[in-house]
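Handout for the seminar on molecular recognition.
Each group receives one record of this type.
Step one: identify the two inputs.
Step two: read the structure output and locate the region that could contact iron/sulfur cluster.
Step three: write two sentences on what you found, then compare them with the reference statements printed after the record.
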Amino acid sequence: MNWKFWSLKKSLFVYHVNAGACNNCDIEILELLTPAYDVERFGIILVGSPRHADVLLVTGVCTRQVKKRLQELYLQTAKPCVVMCIGACALAQGIFAEAYHVGPCVDEVIREVDPNAIIAYVPGCPPKPEAMIMAVVKTWQKLDELAAAEPKPVAPALPEVAGA
Amino acid sequence: MRSVSKGVNGKRTLIPVGPFHPLQEEPEFFQLWVEGETVVDMDLRISYNHRGIEELSTRKTFDQVPYLVERVCGICSSTHPLAYIRAVETICGCEVPPRAKYQRTMVTELERIHSHLLWVGLAGHFLGYNTVFMWAWKYREPIMEILEKITGNRCAYANAKIGGVRRDIPNELFDDIVRAVDSCWGPTEMLTNAVLDDPVLHARLVDVATLTHEDAIRYCVTGPTARASGVPIDVRRDDPYDAFDLVDWDVITFPEGDVMAKAKVRLLETFEAIKIVKQAVRDCPNGETDAGVEEVPPGEAIGHVEAPRGETFHYVRSDGGRCPVRHKIRAPSYVNVPSFRASCIGQHVADVTIAMAAVDPCYSCTERMAVTKDSKTGNELMDAKELQELSVQRTRWFEKQLGIEPFDKRWGPKLQELLA
Amino acid sequence: MSDTATPSVIERFETKLCDEHAICETRKERQGVYSVPIAKLVPLLRDFISNDNARLATITGIDVRDGTELLYHLCFDDHKYVATLKVLVPRTVDAMESITPWLPGAEFIEREIHDLLGIDFTGHPRMERLILSDDWPEGVYPLRRGFKKEDAQP
Ligand code: SF4
């Protein structure tokens, strides 16, 4: 397996970004981390800084004020980083599509700074915790495919050392 | 020794908190001005979560608006529609059938139970008491499940509609509701005892971020924030709606105004909510659940209900058309949050987290020292010695709070001995 | 617990309002809307809040044909009554006396109305942008009539 994606195989560190959500999605994410669903048994854990994150969990519509900050957060993460859009809002702005203070869709905002970003979508309003676990599993499968498709890194040829 | 509230050499530091907090929930941007370890001023910038719902709502029909306002805040997702519906029902002058009234009461109170438990958990988390966090969230799970069973969704219930309820809760499910709330009673009791007995929690919560009675009135706060400062307001009693005047319950108030009082109010209210749900299930009559409102005449009215965080206030104006002309939404946090200025100033930076959480504004934050240079003079604001001095001050303060002998007294001679 | 608002209090409250030439527009069981001359509003609010234990729930701004209506919602919690005092701020003025200096709870409420409807509150300590984004153009008010999303492009 490609080492680049291998790093995303186990123990995902997730960072949660609320980009103008209604809190339902957010409490469902926290629900995942607490004993009822307990994703920590898979090694998934919430971290306090985007710089430690393998996955950005984005909820909400991405309001105009958040747009720039969201891009900034994405740039701060270590790549490759999977962006998970959680909930109808993050997918396609859901019920708030026509409101005046929402910016572009979350995936557009991320693609603006990184056209090759890996983005996963979890539909639902709010998605059930089971659906989110399912999404993680599916993302892992997808990453496997991506890793298979990517050319194997070739070890760089060692430079000739004179006199050896 | 210098008193803690003075700060070190009167130097000011700006601590930006947010807009993205490491933990969760809504983005808000605080600027805390601190002198030493004491907060002397603060400013707040919101907008990160502003979507423009009030304007959007004037483009939805009267029947669609409840689904929209339910998504103002997910944790209060039964009270926002209810406030709106109360306003529209006042304009129409329609009478809600009793069965619908009782069923609305059940859902709002179930929501209150899960919201208060959620708060207790988060408060524990902010204090680094993760056991409470995990426990509280575990014990609210039966409530979420029963809500899913009776309304069809774990979070956005959409159970109320203008003139009644959207979907009748069948009598067969009533037993399940009772079982679910009963399963919460024991754990809540245990949590209450854990909070009231724990000396560390006492040190962190008692006399911290006190919002005085006068300030509570001046800042127009509502809900548990007001009730913990000895202002006995509760919309459920002061302007009874649904079945709240038909069941027996108490308004919980505490005069202290500190974070501990807010925790106590919330915990004890959970018991009241459980009582209300059980009575509502017991008394719920059979019959119609929908008054069949056909159209909304011109007029204007307000509707307010007691959300878990305080009074949710809606104003609706209709011109007889399909959509509201103006729909004003005022969520409880909007009046509770500014009271930080009264409660946080003069506090320790470390206490600000829990002080902010005490209002239950749906976000958290952590302290990060970002600016260590004075913007005007460019001088370093703190050096290692000053920081150490601060931590010593803090330890002394804790020792005093807990009634422990100072460290030097307890260990000083022994240390001397060892060093000799 | 009586179901209706205590009548004597409403009477007292209404006489006070009548003395100041206020007109009762609608009266429902536990709420009423009164339109008040603009000059009398702040003294009345002050009186009710400091003497009658009223609580300011919020202020609603509505864009109407001749200007902006401001609705001050007062909750009389002890008496189960919610009174709404309504004033009309003419379009030519677009300013109103701030109540924040003596009621700090109104600070955010007034700033919000300033953002969304463009009413200036004179005497407000920090009349800065609060809930619109940083790149929102000046002078575009989303809750005014005829507002279009396109007007607000950064
Ligand atoms: S998708 Fe639904 S539940 Fe999630 S933030 Fe949006 S409105 Fe709220």
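Reference statements: Chain B touches chain A at residues 19-20, 22-27, 47-53, 55-56, 59, 67-68, 71-75, 77, 118, 121, 133-134, 137-138, 141, 144, 154-156, 362, 366 (CB under 8 Å). The radius of gyration of chain B is 24 Å.
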